[in-house]
Amino acid sequence: MARVLIIATDGFEQSELIAPRDALRDAGHDVTLASPASDPIQGMEHDEKGETITPDTTLDTVEADAYDMLLLPGGVANPDTLRVNETAVGIVRDFMARGAPVGAICHGPWLLAEADVVRGRRLTSWPSIRTDLRNAGAEVVDAEVVTDGNLITSRKPGDIPAFNRALLAALG
Fold first, then answer.
1. 3 state SS for 1-13
2. Parent domain of 166
3. If 136 and its partner were Cys, which of 66, 103, 113, 116 is the partner (CB 3.0–4.6 Å)?
4. What is d(CA 165, CA 172) in angstroms, rounded to the nearest whole number?
C-alpha cells in the first residue's frame, strides 16, 4: 500500500480530485488531502460550484518524504492559488527531486512550471497553460496521458480513466 498526497484548495475541479482519489483508495492506497488551511475547500464542476471537501491536513504539516506519490488536480483557481504558495511549490520540488511519482491534470501542471521542474520534460495539460509550460522549458504534446519518468500528466476530465490507469501503474 502506497501513501498518496493530494494538494488542493478552493476552485479544484471536482472530478479531477475525487475520481483519482477514489481509484487510488479502491486499489488499497492511503490517500491524504492537504490544503493551505483546514477549512473545507470548494470544488468546481467546470464553471459551477460543486461540493466542498474538508482537507485531512494542512500544507505546513506535510512531510513530503512520508508519501510515495503526489497528485495535483486542476481547476483554474486551485493551481493558480497554490503556485504562489511557497509551501505547495516546495512540496512539488521535493517529490520531483526524489523521483517520486507526480500526477498532474488539466491546470495542475501550473504548479510544476512554478516549481521549475518541467525543463526538458514531456507533458500535456489544458490548452490554455501550454504556452506557460513551453516557456518553462517543457515539451508539450496533446495526448490523453503522458508519462515521462516519474511525471504523469493529462489534459482534462475526459482523460481521467487513462490518468487513473497511469497513476495506478506508477505505484505498481
1. CCEEEEECCCCEE
2. 3-170
3. 113
4. 11
149/165 Cα distance (integer angstroms): 15
Write the CATH number for 60: 3.40.50.880
Predicted local confidence at residue 59, as pLDDT: 98
Q: Which residues of 124-154 are buried (b: 16+ CB within 10 A; e: fewer)?
A: bbbeebbebbeebebebeeeebbbbebbbbb
Among the listed residues 163, 164, 110, 165, the one whose alpha carbon sits nearest the alpha carbon of residue 138: 110
* Residue 171, number of CB atoms within 10 A of its CB: 15
- Tell whether pTM > 0.85: yes
- Mean pLDDT value of segment 99-126: 98
Residues in the chain: 172
Single out the residue of 11, 4, 1, 53 nearest to residue 152, CA to CA.
4
46 catalytic residue (yes or no)? no
Encode 82-107: b = buried (16+ Cβ within 10 Å), e = exposed. bbebeebbebbbbbbeeebbbbbbbb
Measured in degrees and rounded to the nearest 5, phi and psi for residue 5 equal: -110, 130
Spot the catalytic one: 21, 29, 107, 156.
Answer: 107
Say how many domains are in the chain: 1
* Beta-sheet strand order (sheet of 41-45): 12-13, 41-45, 48-53
Query: CA 27: distance to chain centroid?
Result: 18
